[in-house]
Structures are given as structure tokens and as C-alpha cells.
């Protein structure tokens, strides 16, 4: 792109701008390309140095990859046909604000209003074939710059791996997760069954300096009590009848990595003593062995039972409790996560929609309402099961409350006054914001609160300016 700049040979402004924009960025800028084809009018090799290009061929993989990625530019190839399910999957993936999208399309594809809507709602720009390579690079460089403006936000979101959640309580949990990941002390995770404790433990491991080591997860409640000791610590050949060969226990298998002890509250007292000894000394001895083996690993434990009550009843040792709970993380119940319920339901639909016998186009209003009102005693696990069952069983275009088996009044527990107030506050703010085109100043004036208060309330209810609904939808 460089050219001579003699008196009579001045570059014009556009050329100077193009020169600046199209030369290689100082650090490799990431770009993700969603295309079935290696050559989508431009091959990855043509990006040149300074671009780190990753191509996603299957749109069903997009959401998973983008969810935990760094800020980057994205190219979406809309020249080819996508099925309705694929378009749904695309839409899921395009919603992440830290990736800024540029579409490549054709005049013919622009006649499809679903394609026009995707571009209008999720892309910062688009190019039509035939396009010049400079034009695409110029647009992408802009898109990358826009994505980088989300840098602060993504570092806050990055360490939680595959966990979905955007509500205030999940964001707070992700921030705590990032902090505990950078420390090596034992972590205790509390939360109701099915809230994602194991997923959080995995995310801590992945974000920690031990990520290259193993992640070993065991459910202490699922091992018969007479086997816990030998499973955890291993044994030597001949240690007991039937010990025909040496067995390396779970703790030793986690050497260099992370050991996740789920349902720690179910650990028999005898094993609690042995685990405490390991935590104090950093060594184990296999059953029937004489050698003390030094180990370096991190323990993360979890339970859905009340360990304080278990201590009071003498079922759990207080000294072990204090050793395990150096750092704590609490995962909120699903019913406390507001619209994350719908985010998760849509993610399950995007992932499993292909299991349906006909194309499903989302959730009906009655299903959405029922999901928001239901108490979800089994949390995310229950939501996944209900949505997956509905996907397979439904005869409808949109999943209904009945498909989710949330149709009877019996499943809908009465709401508390607090919950009703919260919902009314959220709805009031959302509708006033919408009526002012999501401009904070006039909305705050109408609601008779200060701008700062309105920002705080928007944060609390996870209302974002970007969620502005599009007219006609
Ligand atoms: N925030 C989330 N985003 C996406 N999937 C989630 C999330 N939380 C939980 N899940 C999924 O929900 C299911 C249950 O999660 P997990 O096993 O981690 O829960 P748990 O709290 O450890 O359950 P239990 O107490 O019964 O052991 C898993 O399939 C997990 O992948």
C-alpha cells in the first residue's frame, strides 16, 4: 500500500486512511470467520500478517466458541443458504457484544428478510459481492477497533468458561470466580443442586495456573462409604483381599491440577480425617503402603447441604470445614437470575434444536412467561431437561408452556411480594426507557430519579441500552 509522495504525486485522503487501516495491526488482531467455504471471496491467507484468523464451518459451534473469546472482529458469510435452525444458531452467536460482525452477502440473499434482519440487528457493516479486498479489510479493521472497546467487559467475563449468565448476580459471581482462580487456596462452592457448581469448578481450573494439569471430579456421595478411602487414596497390591494390583487414587491422579470433591458433605468421618491430614501435610499414603507421597494440587469442594448444620450434628469435622473454606463462591439459584432463564433456554434450544422432528422457531409467549414464573427447584439441570424434552415432544412451531410441562397452576408457585416489586420495577424502567428510545436522561426525568440511580437500577435489572427492541418485532 505504500506509495511515493512526491510534490506531483500526492496520495488522496482515502488512500492515506486505507494505508493506515489496512496495514498489519501492531499485535495480532483476532478475526473469526463463519463460512462453510475455505474461499468465501477472500481466503484466510489473504488477510496477511497481523491477523489471527479462525474459521468456523459449523454454525452450531459458533456460540460456544464466541462466548468465551477475546474481543475480536467477525466475518459472517451470508452468501449461502442456512436452514432456520442454523439461522437461530447464528443469531445466538451474533449476540455477544465483544465480537463485532461484518457480513458478506449478495444482492440475491439480501432479498431474504431474515438475512436483512441479521445484518441490521447484529452487524456493524456488510459488503456485497463482488467486493474489493481493501474494502473488506478496511471494514474489518474498524470492526476490530469497535470490539476492543468491550475489552474491560470481556476481561470481566472471560474466566467463566462455558457458563452462561448476564444478570447482576451471575456477573458478581464471575468476578469472584476470576479472583479465586488467581489464588491457589482451597475453594468451597455452595449452591443448590443443578446450579452449576461443577461447571464453576471447571472454570476456576481453566482460569488458574494449573489449567495444564488434570481436572479430576468426584462425587463423594456416589461412592459406597466402604470404598471412599481406597478410591481417594489408592492402594498397594495385596492391601486387602481383592487388591490384585496397585491402584492410583483420585487424589494422586489430580497431581499438578485440581481435585473437585462434589457432595463433600457425604464424605464419611473416617475419610474426613484422612483428607484433613492430606491438606495439612500435603502428602498421602496409599492403603497398604508405607511410602508417603508428596502431592501438589488444588482442592475445590462443593455441596448442596448445609455444612454448618452438619458440623452442629457432628456429621462434618469443623477443622476440615475451615481448611476447605479458605475461599468461597456462591452460585445463585436459577429463579434469582431473571432473564438469564430465557438466555439459557435459548442456548439449550440452539444446541439441541436439531433433535426436533420439525423446525422449532423459539418459545411462545406463554412458555416464556411460565419459565420466568416457575421456581426451578432443580435449577439449570432441570431447565435443560425440560427444554430438551420439549424439543423432542412438541408438535408446535414454538415451544409452549405445555411442552415444557409448566402449564398447570400447580407448577407455578406464588410469587413473594419482593419478587412482584422487583418485576414491577424492572418492567417500569424497561418501558420508560423504550419510550425514550433508550436515552437515559429523559427516562430518568420521567421516572423522577437521578441519572446515577437509573444507571444503578439498569445494572441491577440487567437492562442494557443495546437491548433496544427493533420496531416491528
Ligand atoms: N451457567 C450455566 N451455563 C450453562 N450451563 C450450565 C450453567 N450452569 C449449569 N449448567 C449445566 O447444568 C447442568 C448442571 O450443572 P452442574 O452439574 O455443574 O451443577 P451442580 O451444581 O454441580 O449440581 P449438583 O449439586 O447436583 O452436583 C450441567 O449440564 C451444566 O453444564
From TrEMBL:
UniProt-listed InterPro entries: AAA+_ATPase, AAA_lid_NorR, Homeodomain-like_sf, HTH_Fis, P-loop_NTPase, Sigma_54_int, Sigma_54_int_dom_ATP-bd_2, Sigma_54_int_dom_CS
Keywords: ATP-binding, DNA-binding, Nucleotide-binding, Transcription, Transcription regulation
Record keyword ATP-binding present: yes
Pfam families membership: AAA_lid_14, HTH_8, Sigma54_activat, VpsR
Keyword Nucleotide-binding: yes
Membrane-spanning residues: none
UniProt domain Sigma-54 factor interaction: residue ranges: 163-392
Entries under CDD domains matching the protein: AAA
Family annotation (Gene3D superfamilies): 1.10.8.60, Homeodomain-like, P-loop containing nucleotide triphosphate hydrolases
UniProt name for this protein: Anaerobic nitric oxide reductase transcription regulator NorR
Organism listed in the record: Cupriavidus pinatubonensis
